[in-house]
Every structure is written in C-alpha cells, then in structure tokens.
Amino acid sequence: MLPIEQFPVLVVAISLLSALTILLAGWLNKKSCFYISLATITFQFILSIFILRHVLTVGTIHYWLGGWRPPWGIEYVVDALNAYVLIIILFLSLLAAIYSKRSVEHEIDEKKLVTFYTLFQLLVTGIAGVVVTGDLFNMYVLLEVCSLAAYALIAAAGGRALKASYNYLVMGAIGVCFYLLGIGFLYSVTGTLNMGDMRLLLPALYGNKAVQVAFVFILIGLSIKCAIFPLHTWQPDAYTYAPSVITVIISTAMAKASIYALIRVIFSVFTVDFITLFAPIADIISWVAAIAMIFGSILAIAQFNLKRMLAYSSIANIGYIMLGVGLSTSTTLGLTPALMHILNHALMKGCLFMAACGFIYKADLRDIRDLVGLARRMPYTCFAFLLAALSMIGFPPSVGFVTKLYLIFAALDAGKYIFIAVIFFSTLLMIVYFWHVIEIMYIRVEEKGEKEIKVADAPMSMVIPGLVLAVLCFIVGIIWLIGTPMPLMDAINSGLGLGVAVP
Amino acid sequence: MSLSTEKRIQERDVVIQTIAKLMIPFIQLFGLYVMIGTEGAGGGFQGGTVLAASFILLVVAFGIDKGRMKMPEGWNAVFKSLGLYLYAGVGGLLCIIFSLGKAEYLNYCAIPLAKIIGGPATRGFWVGNIVEVGIGVTVMAAFVSIFYDLVRKEESVEEGGAEE
Asked: What average pLDDT is seen over chain A?
C-alpha cells in the first residue's frame, strides 16, 4: 500500500502517462480512448479524496521530487486550500469525461478523436498540476501545459472556433508572459522559486520596487487567465464556439485552477501584510469585481446565443469570487465566501453549460428564441437547467443563495455597505436573463400544438452528469448552511493568515 | 504551376543525396553520443534534437515519401509514448515501487538496477542514461512529427496551387 504522501505526484504523473497511453491505444482501437481517460480521471478523483482526508487529519503534505530539499528542488505542497480546489476540479473533470462520450462522437471528426482525448487528458494533467505544485516556476510550466491543450481543444470545433482559439492564444500568451516576468523579478531579488521559501524571504524586501512591480505583473497575468472583468475579452468567444465538453471543463475546472493560482500568489507567496500595507489592492479588486458583476450581467441580458449568455454570466460570477477575495482582508470571514463560490459556481455553471450543449446536441438549438416549449421535448435536460438557473438567481437553499448570503455578511462585517447594493442589483439582473430563458422554455407553447410533441431527450450519458450537478446545487447549499465544511474553511483561512479581526 | 518547378521538386540533386547518405549515420552517432556518451547529467534534449535533424536531412535529400518509409507516423507516436514511459515509468514510478513507497518520484537512487550494475560512482550514470534516452526519444519523435505536419501543409498548398 502506497503511503498517502506519494499521492500528489501520482495525480499528475499517472495522468501524464495516461495521456500518452491514449495516443498509443487509440492507434489500435479508437473506442478505448474514452475508457482510458475516464478510468484515469476516476482514479485521480479517488486519490484526491484520500489527499483531502489526509490533509485534514494529519496535516500538510510536503513532497520533494527526486528527494531534493525545497529551496533547490521542486516541491509539491498540498494544504487545505489545494486539497479543496483539487477535489472540485477533479470532480468536474470526471463529470465532463462522462459527458464527453456522446458529445465528442457527435462533434469531433473521427480522425481527430485520438488526439482530442490525448489533449483532453493533458488538460486535466495541467489543471491538476497547477493545483498541487508548490513551486512558482513549476506552476508556470503546468499553466502552459493546460493552456496549450485548451487552445488546441477549442480550435478542434473548427469554423469560428479557430478565431476564438487564436484570440485566446494571444491573450493567454500575454497573460503567461506577464506572470513569467513577475517570477523573473522575484527570482532576481530573492534567488528562490519555492513558494514557502519565498514567503519567508520576501517580508524584508516588501519596500523594494522590483517586488512591487513583480506583484502587479503576476496579478495582471493571472487576471487575464481567469478572465477578470477588463481582461475578459477572449472569454465569451472561447466559451461559445468550443466543443461542448471543452466549454464545460474550461469554464469550471480550468477557470477555478487559475483563480486558485491567483489566490495562492496573493495570500501565500505575498502575505496579507503586503497587500494591506505596501500594495493596497484589496479595495481595487473589490471595485473591479463590483463592476464585473454588473457589467457581465448587463451584457448577458443582451445576448441571444445561450452559450454566450452563460459566458457573460461567468464573467459576473468571477466578479463574485473576486469580491470575496477583495473583502477577505477586512472581515472575520476571510476567504470563506470566495472559496464557497469557487465550488458553487463550478457546480452551477457546469450544469448550465451541460444543458445548453445538450440542446445543441439534440436539436442544434443555439438561439434562446428557438427554445420555445422545449421543456416538453427535453424534460430532464430542461429540469437540470431550471434547477441550476434557480440556484444562480439565489433561490434558497441553493448554493447561489449561500454565496450571496455570505458575501453580504462579509460586506456588513467589513462595513462596506455599497457592495450589498451591488449584490442585490446584480441578482436582479440575473433574474432578468435567467427568467427570460425559463419563461421561453417552460411557459410559452409551440405553435404546432400539443399532439406533435415527442419526448426526445439527450442521451443518458449527457443528461445524468447535468442532473447530478443540478441536484448537488441544492444538496451542497444545505450542507453549507448546516456548516459541515466550516472546519475546512477555517483551516484554509488560518493557513493564509486571514479570518482574524482586522483593525 | 509551371512544368519546370514540378520537375525540380521531383528530381533531386545527386550531390545532396550522396552527402546525406554519408552524413546521416555520423549525425545519428553524434546524437547518441550527446545523449548517453558523456558522464554528466543532461543532454537528452540536445541529443534528441540532433537525431531529429538527421531525419529532417533525410527528408530534405530524398523527399517526404522516403522519409515516411523510414519513419512512419505510427512509429512516431510509439516513440513519443515510449520515451515518456522510459522517463516517467522507469525513472520515476519504479523508484516508488522498488522502495515500497519510501522514496520520492524521480529519486533514482532507489532503483536496484544501479546497485546491480556498478558501484556508487557509476550508479547515477546508468540510471541517468536510461532517463536521458527516454527524453531523447520523445524529443526526436516530437520534432519529426512537427516537421511532417509542416511538410503536409506544404503539399496541400502545392496541390491547391496546381489546380489554379
């Protein structure tokens, strides 16, 4: 029996090996690709559960690759924050993998099938790697692994996806370059790339201009990767034109991994002291997030393409997460609202995109106005969409409601009442655009009349992941309200030095 | 496209072909030397690049069809995976398995192969070579397949041009 200390590296190494195995096995039998990918991701997910349990009961896992000690070698560190994000992204990847079977057969040319699954597995490798690594440069490499895979996978849809992918490529390359420049500056000042080591060395150098510039560079670079409001321009096209399963995985797992990287750099490499005393960005982040919440929602109202509407809604929801990050330094709740919304948004948006892509799979319905009376033809998919949309609006006791509740608590605690108004206004806008879709799907009747309607839902492998996520939206909401995961949140906050009363 | 250019593509220069025939074995030998001939660590990537360069020279001199005969794309995929298996499988996962989960990933000291073959001075050398061959093979296959893809683009452009 392997000790659990080995698991962080297995999550990455086995996934990488499996990617290349798919390439070989696909050469012999094309159908095996999907099963190898599914088995690997299931295995990774099981490993991540063990990792979370170990982190909560025993403590942080430090893994030195090749036995080299941290300042010299690469170190994988898994603490409560990593383990929490890892389990979310691998769960979403698992559901996306189940979802992929039929949708990929439908959308992707059979010749490209093998390389598609190879790249898909590499994407999962990169995402998992970003989350477990404890080394800044290693994080850059793995960010590039998952980004490059994502560019190619988005382009796999062909047609307008090529332009979207190219846009994303240029923006993503700029973002990663900023991040790399920032690391370069930090390395030139401190002489280390290890996050834990850098955290110890940096406080003496907080006044240094190079360190402050490096912080801004890394912040901007990762903001592009997360599609935070003014830097989101690549995101709507990429989400709209990508193949269904890729939309699902990049909007949930990959976006969350980028946000994790941002949180890790802000609070773990730099500390709360730095962002309160030397670079007062918490307020800036909050205001930008507030603008994103309103701007994303308003643009979502203006869209007719369902996937595009959801993409703009994602921008608004990234705003919610960033508002939690911005408020975290001045409340006793710390990062809890932001971390909650990382899970909550992954559940809701995963479900919504699965449903939206189900409509495209079954009837090539991309326009919201074409969805008239669809609830009678595709009842299960529409039901999943309904639950997730209600959750998004903030129907209690769903996850969306919990996030909004805790964000309001945080804003009250911080004494910044204006953000409560922003949350309410943004929620009103969300009701407008989600209710518009629900009304068309459920209330309007098709002109043909009742008799001709036949139930023809998407295949089971595409309906069930969506339904699972939709039901989880409510179950997880209740779990949050009961407060079961709060010890985990407290562990994360205390690890980052947050959540204590700040003057 | 005019006749003369088509002719030029098909007829290859004798001088280039002869020189290539002479040079390719030496280039490959040099690639292997860079990969595993030296005692220090490193050289896998460089050696793989040199090996790939020999295949590229072959294609330049004899045309893509001959190149595909010597190195079919299916084999290329096999080499790509094989190199990674050598690197991560032998070099890394075996470390964990042989030490019964005590040693870290990529901690080559844990592989008993090194203990069987030689003393502590050459221990790292042997295992290091296996790992470097793995890196070299993958790099070679990747470069060759990138080159093949570029050549295929060129071919389709030429076909498109011929139709006009």
From this structure: 87
With residue A294 as reference, give the H or E element that holds it: helix A282-301
Q: Exposure pattern of A281-301 as b/e (b: 16+ CB <10 Å)?
A: bbeebbbbbbebbbbbbebbe
Query: What's the Rg (C-alpha) of chain A?
Result: 22
Whether A273 contacts A237, CB under 8 Å = no
**Which residues of chain A are within 8 Å of residue B93 when distances are taken between CB atoms?**
13, 17
> What are the residue boundaries of the structural domains of chain B, listed by start?
3-163
Q: If we measure between CA atoms, which residue out of A254, A57, A51 comes closest to residue A143?
A: A254
Mind telling me how many Å the CA of B43 is from chain A's nearest CA?
19
| CA separation for the pair A219, A316 (Å, rounded) | 19
User: CA of A28 to nearest chain B CA: how many angstroms apart?
Assistant: 10
Give chain B's count of helices (H) and strands (E): 8, 0
* A102-124: pLDDT as tens digits: 888 888 888 888 889 999 999 99
Residue A86's pLDDT band (boundaries 50, 70, 90)?
very high
A-chain residue closest to B87, CA distance: A17
Find the distance separating the first CA and the last CA of chain A, reported in whole Å.
49
pLDDT tens profile A442-465: 887 766 655 555 667 778 888 888
CB within 8 Å: B107 and A27:
no
DSSP for A373-431, please give it: THHHHSHHHHHHHHHHHHHHHT-TTSHHHHHHHHHHHHHHHHT-THHHHHHHHHHHHHH
Q: Give the start-end residues of each E strand in A237-374.
A: none
Helices (H), A58-204: 80-107, 113-132, 136-155, 160-190, 195-201
Q: Report whether A340 contacts A403 (CB < 8 A).
A: yes
Q: With residue A75 as reference, give the H or E element that holds it.
A: strand A75-78
Residue A129 distance to chain B (closest CA, Å): 14
Task: Please state the ipTM of this predicted complex.
Answer: 0.79
Contact predicate A95/A251, CB 8 Å: no
Q: Would you state the structure tokens that stand for residue B60, as one six-digit string?
A: 């330049």
Dihedral class, residue A394 (left if φ above 0, else alpha if ψ from -120 to 50, else beta): left
Q: Least CB-CB distance to B84: which of A20, A65, A67?
A: A20
